[in-house]
Write a structure and sequence with these properties.
By secondary structure, the protein is mainly beta. It has 2 domains: 82 residues, Histone H3 K4-specific methyltransferase SET7/9 N-terminal domain (Single Sheet); 135 residues, Single Sheet (Histone H3 K4-specific methyltransferase SET7/9 N-terminal domain). About 9% of the residues have low confidence.
């Protein structure tokens, strides 16, 4: 009987010590400021309902180390590792299921450098580059097998430079050029067998001049003529059934067809 009492008393003392330690760590030392009003140590933020929004560390009012942000279901939404006197944040975001959604850096709260984006199964979707929160540099899109589907470039938020799309087997599908967000100069569309499907020119987003179209064997199917995006005539060399006719150009979302 005395042995049981001793064990019970020891357990109660241990629990009491733990409670004091927890209070010291997460109670009295939370959200502290020094004599100058600067945030020091561990800080947390909750909304009006008491839901935890974030937890992180401050030193002399500067965020340091890891900050963790939570969603409405108390799941980790964002992790940030602070550096450079709180100006740089190496950031990882997460899908609701816990899988990584994106990874990259913020500088002065603006996206900078390379960012990678993933689906909920861990598949890399895109690799993007930023300058002051604006797309700038290479932009890469990937198929589910990891092969490249598209490569284009941005200059301060505008599509600029060479643009390539690829079939799933890696063969070139489209090759063109963007200038200030619009297609310009020669563009070529390819068939899955590697032969040219169509080719022509854009003048700042408008078809211009002669456009040529080929069938699967590489024979010339037809030639069309454009002025400022308006078709002015055509010559047909090979008549195709209506169901086999496929318009060639750029869809509204920028995808080649």
């Amino acid at each position: 009987m005395r042995m049981k009492m001793k064990i019970l008393l020891l357990m109660m003392c241990t629990m009491l010590v733990w409670s004091f330690q927890a209070a010291a760590q997460y109670g009295d030392t939370l959200n502290q400021t020094d004599a100058q009003g600067r945030r020091q140590g561990t800080w947390i933020k909750k909304d009006a309902s008491g839901r935890l929004i974030y937890r992180g560390q401050f030193a002399d009012d500067v965020p340091v180390g890891e900050f963790i942000y939570y969603d409405d279901a108390a799941r980790i939404k964002v992790r940030q590792l602070m550096s450079d006197s709180g100006t740089r944040a190496a950031t990882t975001t997460y899908h609701p299921g816990g899988q990584m959604q994106s990874k990259g850096d913020y500088f002065d709260r603006l996206k900078t450098g390379e960012w990678k984006y993933y689906d909920q199964y861990g598949q890399l979707l895109t690799v993007e580059n930023y300058y002051k929160d604006t797309l700038h540099g290479g932009f890469f899109v990937f198929y589910q097998n990891g092969d490249t589907a598209e490569i284009l470039h941005y200059d301060r938020g505008l599509k600029a430079g060479e643009w390539n799309q690829y079939f799933k087997d890696g063969k070139l599908k489209t090759n063109g050029l963007f200038v200030n967000e619009t297609l310009h100069d020669t563009i070529t569309f390819y068939q899955p067998n590697g032969k040219v499907r169509a080719a022509g020119k854009y003048n700042h987003g408008l078809k211009t001049g002669a456009w040529v179209y080929y069938i699967e064997t590489g024979e010339l199917e037809r030639m069309e003529h454009f002025v400022n995006g308006v078709k002015t005539g055509q010559e047909v060399m090979i008549e195709l059934p209506a169901e086999n006719y496929e318009p060639i150009g750029i869809e509204d979302d920028g995808d080649a067809r």
